[in-house]
Amino acid sequence: MTERGNERLQCQLRYLIKGIYTSRDSQQELTRELEDLLPNADAVTVLPVVQGYSVDLEIKDIAPFNRVSFEPYIADHVLADAVRIHCDSDEEVQIQLLKSRFF
After folding, report:
1. pTM of the predicted model, to two decimals?
2. pLDDT band with cut points at 50, 70 and 90 for residue 62
3. Over the chain, what HEC string results?
4. How far is CA 49 from the centre of its chain?
5. How far is CA 75 from CA 3, 4, 6, 14, in A?
6. What is the number of other CB atoms lying within 10 angstroms of the CB of residue 66?
7. Dist. CA 66–CA 54, nearest whole Å
8. CA-CA distance, 22 to 25, in Å (whole number)?
9. d(CA 99, CA 19)
10. How many Å apart are CA 61 and CA 92, to the nearest integer?
11. Which of 14, 25, 47, 53 is the most buried (most CB within 10 A)?
12. Tens-digit pLDDT profile for residues 67-103
């Protein structure tokens, strides 16, 4: 399973995504896309902030990834692709990790 033998390695991640226009539709579409892309997510919360979104993810099992590879995969691929597909922007989109907790 994960790096702790047969135990599941869970995590909580919080990101700030800046440089995009927010709307109720894009918020809902982004939430649905992340839920589809992350089937091991217990919770996906997307909230609007000034020129962006705050995204909280609670993942119940990060397998087949480990601590080192999981977060960059989420930021560089999952979030970046979902934002590119569902959000409009006139500037460079910035994805910043605010919190990561593995347990």
Report:
1. 0.90
2. very high
3. CECCECCCCCEEEEEEEECCCCCHHHHHHHHHHHHHHCCCEEEEEEEEECCEEEEEEEECCCCCCCHHHHHHHHHHHHHHHHHHHHCCCCCCCEEEEEEEEEC
4. 15
5. 21, 23, 26, 10
6. 13
7. 24
8. 8
9. 19
10. 31
11. 53
12. 999 999 999 999 999 999 999 998 899 999 999 999 9
- Look up residue 89 and give its two tokens: 């922007």
Question: Using CA atoms, how far apart are residues 47 and 27, in angstroms rounded to an integer?
Answer: 7
Q: Does the CA dihedral 42-65-68-48 come out positive or negative?
A: negative
Q: Note the CATH number of domain 11-102.
A: 3.30.70.60
Q: Where are the domains of the chain?
A: 11-102
